[in-house]
Design a protein that fits this description.
This protein is α/β, with parallel strands linked by helices. Helix content is about 45%, strand content about 15%. Strands 1, 2, 3, 4, 5, 6, 7 and 9 form an eight-stranded mixed sheet that branches. The chain has a two-stranded antiparallel ribbon with strand order 8-10.
Length: about 425
C-alpha cells in the first residue's frame, strides 16, 4: 500500500471472527488481528475505512432466528458495532455499517445466488425462501440496524472519536433504451427500486412512492419513530459502481399468481453492457456520472464516497499482468468522477476494487479485480504488481498526465483521502 502511495484503505470486519457466539465473549485473537491491522495502517499514514457487514453474518444467528429476516438482529448488530467502536474507534474515523444493502437483500433473498441463498424463484434450487417478501423484510431490517448503530455512535462515541457513519449500495448507471415516454418512466422506476429503495429512507425517512404502490402490503412500514431514526442517519452514502444498463419498459402485467419477486415488481427489461463474472466490459464513464448526478438531483447531494469501482479480468487471461483494459477503465471512470465534481457532486473519496485479487462473491477465483495478483498456490500468497498497480501509483503521485495537471490537482483537493 505504501509503495502504491495509498493514503486510505477500505476493509471489512468479520462479525463471526469477532463474536463467535451470540452475546458471548469477544474472540481475543480476532480482536488482536484487527487491532494489528489498523495500527499498521495508521503507523504508515493510511486511513482505515471500515465496513461492519459485508455479506456475512454469524451462522448462529441464522440457526437461532433466521438472521436478517428477524428484527432481533437489530439489537445483536448494534451490540457487535458497539464492540468495534469501543475497541477500534480511536483510530477509525470512517465506518460503513452495511455493504451494498440492496444487493445483499436481492442476491441472498430474491435470487438465492449469494449468502444465505434463499429464494422461491423456479429453477434456482433454493431449499428455503420467499422472493416475494423476504428481500423487502431484509432491506427493512438492514436500514433499522444501520439507524440503531448510527444512533449509538452519535450518543456514545462521536464527541470523543469524531468519526462518521455511512451506508453503501450498489448502483447501476441506468439509461432508457429509446426516447419513448414508457422507457423514460421505466428508467425512473428502476432507479426507485434499485437505488431509491435504500436512499429514500436514509434521506427522506420512507421508501419511494413507486415501490410502496407496486409492492403494496408486502412492503414493510416504518413507524413514525423509526422513520425519524432512519432519516439522516448516514453522514455519507457509499457508492459501489461497476455496470451500466439500458432500460426498456416491460409490457408484462404484474403477476397475480403470487409468484412475484423483486424483478417482477420492478417490471423492466435490463440490458447490461457487461456482467460481474465477464472480462468483456464496456467502458462507460457516463454511467458513474449518471449515478452521481441522480444522487445529487434526487437526494439532496449528500456526501458520497465511491467505495468500489473496478474491472474484472479472467485470471487465466494473457491480460492478467499487462492489464491495460483495467487501466483504460480506471482512467475513464476517474475522469467521470472529476467531471461530476465539477458539476457539483459532493463526492469526497474514491476506492479502486480491489488492491489485490481475492475470492469474489460472483466468479470466485476465476476473475480478478486486483491491482496486484496473488499466487494462491504459493503458501506465502506472493503478491505481484500488475501494470495497473504501476499506473495507479504514478497517478496518485501526480505523474500520470491523462487528466492534466489541473485535473489531478482538482481531484486530489476534492477527494481526501483519495485511494
Amino acid at each position: 500500500m505504501v509503495d502504491t502511495n495509498l493514503d486510505a484503505f477500505r476493509f471489512s470486519i468479520s462479525w463471526s471472527r469477532l463474536i463467535p457466539n451470540r452475546r458471548g465473549p469477544v474472540n481475543q485473537k480476532g480482536l488482536q488481528f484487527y487491532k494489528n491491522l489498523i495500527q499498521e495502517l495508521v503507523s504508515h499514514g493510511i486511513e482505515p475505512y471500515v465496513t461492519l457487514h459485508h455479506f456475512d453474518h454469524p451462522q448462529y444467528l441464522e440457526d437461532e432466528y433466521e438472521g436478517w429476516l428477524n428484527h432481533m438482529i437489530v439489537e445483536d448488530f448494534t451490540a457487535y458495532a458497539d464492540v468495534c467502536f469501543r475497541e477500534f474507534g480511536n483510530h477509525v474515523k470512517f465506518w460503513t455499517t452495511i455493504n451494498e444493502g440492496n444487493i445483499f437483500s436481492i442476491g441472498g433473498y430474491n435470487d438465492g445466488d449469494s449468502p444465505p441463498g434463499r429464494c422461491s424463484i423456479p429453477g434456482q434450487n433454493c431449499l428455503l425462501g420467499n422472493s416475494s417478501t423476504e428481500p423487502y423484510i431484509v432491506g427493512h431490517n438492514l436500514l433499522l440496524a444501520h439507524a440503531s448503530v448510527s444512533r449509538l455512535y452519535k450518543q456514545n462515541y462521536k464527541d470523543k472519536q469524531g468519526g462518521s457513519i455511512g451506508f453503501s449500495i450498489l448502483t447501476i448507471g441506468f439509461s432508457p433504451s429509446t426516447s419513448s415516454k414508457d422507457d423514460a418512466i421505466a428508467t425512473q422506476r428502476a432507479n426507485d427500486f434499485f437505488n431509491g429503495w435504500m436512499l429514500g429512507p436514509l434521506i427522506y425517512g420512507d421508501y419511494p412512492d413507486t415501490m410502496k404502490r407496486i409492492v403494496g402490503s408486502r412492503m414493510p412500514i416504518f413507524s413514525e419513530e423509526e422513520s425519524e431514526q432512519v432519516k439522516g442517519s448516514s453522514d455519507y452514502i457509499g457508492i459501489n459502481h461497476y455496470l451500466a444498463a439500458s432500460i426498456t419498459n416491460s409490457k408484462l402485467k404484474p403477476s397475480i399468481s403470487g409468484n412475484t419477486d423483486f424483478y417482477s415488481d420492478m417490471n423492466v427489461i435490463l440490458s447490461f453492457f457487461a456482467n460481474f463474472s465477464s472480462s468483456e466490459y464496456d467502458v462507460a464513464p457516463w454511467a458513474i456520472e449518471a449515478v452521481l448526478e441522480y444522487v445529487k438531483q434526487s437526494y439532496g447531494n449528500p456526501p458520497v464516497y465511491i467505495l468500489e469501482n473496478g474491472r474484472p479480468i479472467n485470471r487465466d487471461s494473457q491480460l492478467k499482468e499487462k492489464d491495460t483494459p483495467r487501466i483504460e477503465f480506471l482512467q475513464a471512470y476517474i475522469g467521470g468522477v472529476l467531471k461530476s465534481i465539477r458539476n457539483g457532486s459532493d463526492t469526497r473519496g474514491y476506492f479502486v476494487w480491489s488492491l489485490m485479487d481475492l475470492y469474489e462473491i460472483k466468479g470466485g477465483y476465476d476473475v480478478g479485480y486486483g491491482l496486484y495478483s496473488v499466487n494462491f498456490s504459493d503458501p506465502h500468497r506472493k503478491r505481484s504488481p500488475k501494470l495497473s498497480a504501476h499506473w495507479y501509483s504514478d497517478f496518485l503521485k501526480g505523474k500520470t498526465a491523462f487528466l492534466g495537471s489541473q485535473g489531478i490537482t482538482e481531484l486530489q483537493s476534492n477527494l481526501s483521502p483519495y485511494s
